[in-house]
Amino acid sequence: MIEIDNLSKHYRAPDGRITEVLKSISLQVPQANITAVVGPSGAGKSTLAKCISLLEQPSAGSIRVNGSDLSRLDGEALRQARRSIGTVFQSSALLQRKTAWENIALPLHYLGVVERDIAARVGELLDSVGLSHKAKAYPGQLSGGQRQRIGIARALALRPSVLLADEATSGLDPEATITVLDLLKKLRDDYKLAIVLITHEMDAVRQAADAVAEIRDGQIVQYGVVKELLAQP
Ligand code: ADP
Ligand code: ADP
Questions:
Q1: What are the residue boundaries of the ABC transporter domain, all occurrences included (predicted)?
Q2: Rounded-to-integer distance, Cα 12 and Cα 20, Å
Q3: Is the CB of 107 under 6 A from ligand 2?
Q4: Using CA atoms, how far apart are residues 19 and 10, in angstroms rounded to an integer?
Q5: Ligand 1 proximal residues by C-beta, below 6 Å
Q6: Which strand ranges, in their side-by-side order, compose the sheet holding 2-12?
Q7: One digit per residue, pLDDT tens: the chain, 233 residues?
Q8: Can you tell me the ipTM of this complex?
């Protein structure tokens, strides 16, 4: 589970002026839950995503994953902590000259996992995203939806307990969007993942999210359980 507590982030311009981008955001995503984060452009979604993926340090507040605060780490501890959070972006950023199989294997290679275990793990991951038959395909030979599914498999290679999907279905056609969202729901259930789904697409929220938080101007202005929100007249 991921618990974001009073998270604030400001940037200081060279002239000393401070821009407050996130203002005391608190949000909890339990295991086996998809929580969508929505909001207009400029609301702070990307900044929140960078904090969650531990690419930016918050100015205040904490980000706890399964109880430990990961927001103030550096060096080796930070590298270790990053493994507990898988990330998939709008363009899955697969390496074009590597096959689907090799792309998924990359994080395991970096970690020095032995070849035999890598093979077993990559096989499992390809299976869990339904693309075993595309193991040898290069990204250019895959559809957008298939590339995202490979990106998701790679994000899960190190068995994170949290998955951050940052506009992961933006730019996909409706059919591919449904496939990717269905996959996220399956992974939520199979691996009990806490999934943070950052999106500007309300259809994605309706289809996949258990809860939704709306941010505006760096603050959560609305939070609710999707079933209850949709049940409102
Ligand atoms: P969203 O992803 O919801 O569109 P962002 O997180 O990209 O929002 O940006 C939120 C606000 O923070 C914007 O006003 C943006 O200009 C500002 N911002 C983002 N990054 C920086 C930065 N490095 N320095 C200063 N301001 C920033
Ligand atoms: P076990 O402890 O026997 O591995 P788990 O329920 O933890 O049982 O895992 C079952 C299967 O799901 C295993 O094949 C494991 O590799 C895979 N798995 C578990 N958690 C994750 C995760 N967060 N991301 C990807 N795969 C996972």
A1: 2-233
A2: 9
A3: no
A4: 5
A5: 11, 19, 21, 39, 41-47
A6: 18-29, 2-12, 60-65, 68-69
A7: 999 999 999 999 999 999 999 999 999 999 999 999 999 999 999 999 999 999 999 999 999 999 999 999 999 999 999 999 999 988 778 999 999 999 999 999 999 999 999 999 999 999 999 999 999 999 999 999 999 999 999 999 999 999 999 999 998 999 999 999 999 999 999 999 999 999 988 889 999 999 999 999 999 999 998 877 777 66
A8: 0.67
Q: Is the pTM of this model over 0.80?
A: yes
